[in-house]
Specification:
This protein is about 40% helix and about 20% strand. The chain has helices at about 35-45, 70-80, 110-120, 145-175, 185-195, 210-220, 235-240, 245-255, 265-275, 280-290, 295-305, 330-340, 340-345, 355-360, 370; strands at about 25-30, 60-65, 85, 90-95, 120-125, 230-235, 260-265, 310-315, 320-325, 345-355, 375-380, 390-395. It starts with about 25 loop residues before the first strand and ends in an 8-residue tail after the last strand. It contains 15 helices and twelve strands. It has a six-stranded mixed sheet with strand order 2-4-1-5-6-7, sandwiched between helices. It has a three-stranded mixed sheet with strand order 3-9-8, sandwiched between helices. The protein has a three-stranded antiparallel sheet with strand order 11-10-12. Strand 8 and strand 9 (about 320-325) form a beta hairpin. The longest helix has about 35 residues, at about 145-175. With about 400 residues, it is α/β, with parallel strands linked by helices. It folds into two domains: about 25-60 and about 95-305, P-loop containing nucleotide triphosphate hydrolases (Rossmann fold), CATH 3.40.50; about 310-395, Ubiquitin-like (UB roll). It is flat, with a radius of gyration of 24 Å.
């Protein structure tokens, strides 16, 4: 196989291979009832939705967005001090709690499983704290059991999708004598069924490109193809001391069931910190008292954005500093189209500097030092935009002639 050309985009890997190639992807907050999902959603998105102590408090999914923290964006805003500042945003959906048997309709299960199918990635919130004030749907706290419950329900729902798809394909073949089940279809569906029977997420399998395309074409957006970030909700005490009897067991389970990022956090800690946000002295006193513990929310947002295979580039100037979200691997004309379709249609070139080069060279507003150092590049239609690029597009759109 010949080597890739310099500007040829890399193929997405892992769960990203199954995802939609879009710029407005969403993470869904998922878990059993009363594990801290809605409280976390409130903190992430500055919302104030109901977060009561009983199952099914959240019924219809709540949607909001949270800014992606980035020191590069802050640097550009501090330099230019424009009247308009627009960070990148992660879109988040709060989905009601699942219970055992949801795939068969238990609780409010089927509707909620369809809500999970509608998002592109999952924040799986796991409870690892004891509290007499917060009831547990199974009466006792056991995060590993809860992880297995959720994964079993997701795999069961995907098995339902699989069976319907296979039945439909066989029906189509029966109606059309010129059709037959392809060997690729049969082998791929058998492989999917084997994994789901073993409660293994489809994203964890080793799939060829034709198999991935077959899954996407025939099975749609299976729930277990979506990337997952595991968020472990600890007590404030355990979060500060960085110890909890369940953490090692949870981490082991994750490694044995397809892997993924695990982020310990504490709703109790985050809420107390948030409540002090308008009092600088109180915030400092609180942070000084917690042995170096700090908010885990920024890490969650950044990781969620990464799991969706999203990046962003910057436009910066006197009027505005802005992050423009796009799918990793996008070419320069596609990136221009994020600003306006005319930019893509009439794309001429992209004038680009990497953020690190700009920060190292620029002594003030503008590109004089960057250009003098030869780091201000002109890129064409085949350029693959990199995360953190600072870009100015040149385009020309001729007005359409009236008929």
């Amino acid at each position: 196989m010949p080597p890739k050309k310099k500007d040829e985009p890399d193929e997405a890997v892992g769960a990203a291979r199954f995802g939609r190639v879009r710029n407005n992807l969403k993470m869904g907050v998922v878990g059993l009832p009363n594990v801290g999902k809605s409280s976390l959603f409130n903190l992430l998105t500055d919302q104030s939705i109901a977060a009561e102590n009983f199952p099914f408090c959240t019924i219809e999914p709540n949607e909001a967005r949270c800014a992606v923290p980035d020191e590069r964006y802050d640097f550009l805003c501090d330099m230019w001090k424009p009247p308009s500042e627009y960070p990148a945003y992660l879109h988040v959906t709060d989905i009601a709690g699942l219970v055992r048997g949801a795939a068969e309709g238990a609780g409010l299960g089927n509707a909620f499983l369809s809500h999970i199918q509608a998002v592109d990635g999952i924040f799986h919130v796991v409870r690892a704290f004891d509290s007499e004030e917060v009831i547990h749907v199974d009466d006792s706290v056991d995060p590993v059991r809860d992880l297995e419950t959720i994964q079993a329900e997701l795999c069961a729902k995907d098995m339902e999708y699989l069976r319907k798809a296979v039945e439909q394909e066989k029906l189509d073949v029966k109606k059309n004598p010129t059709m037959k089940l392809s060997a690729l279809f049969v082998s791929t569906m058998d492989k999917v069924e084997e994994m789901l029977t073993d409660n293994l997420p489809i994203r964890t399998g080793e799939w060829t490109t034709p198999e991935v395309q077959m899954i996407k074409e025939k099975l749609g957006r299976l729930i277990t193809t979506k990337p997952i970030v595991y968020l472990v909700n600890l007590s404030k005490k355990d979060f500060i001391r960085k110890k909890n009897k369940w953490l090692v067991k949870i981490h082991t389970w994750i490694k044995e069931h397809g892997g993924g990022v695990m982020i310990p956090f504490s709703v109790e800690f985050e809420q107390e910190l948030w409540d002090k946000r308008e009092d600088v002295d109180a915030t400092k006193a609180f942070l000084d008292s917690v042995d170096g513990a700090k908010s885990a929310l920024p890490k969650m947002v950044v990781q969620g954005y990464k799991e969706l295979n999203l990046i962003y580039y910057f436009t910066a100037g006197e009027k505005e500093v802005r992050c423009w979200t796009l799918y990793e691997g996008s070419l320069a004309p596609q990136a221009a189209g994020v600003i306006h379709s005319d930019f893509e249609r009439g794309f001429i070139k992209a004038e680009v500097v990497a953020f690190d080069d700009f920060k190292a060279l620029a002594k003030g507003k503008g590109m004089a030092e960057v250009k003098a150092a030869g780091k201000y590049r002109q890129e064409g239609k085949t350029y693959v935009v990199k995360d953190g690029d600072i870009i100015h597009f040149q385009f020309n759109v001729t007005a359409q002639k009236k008929k």
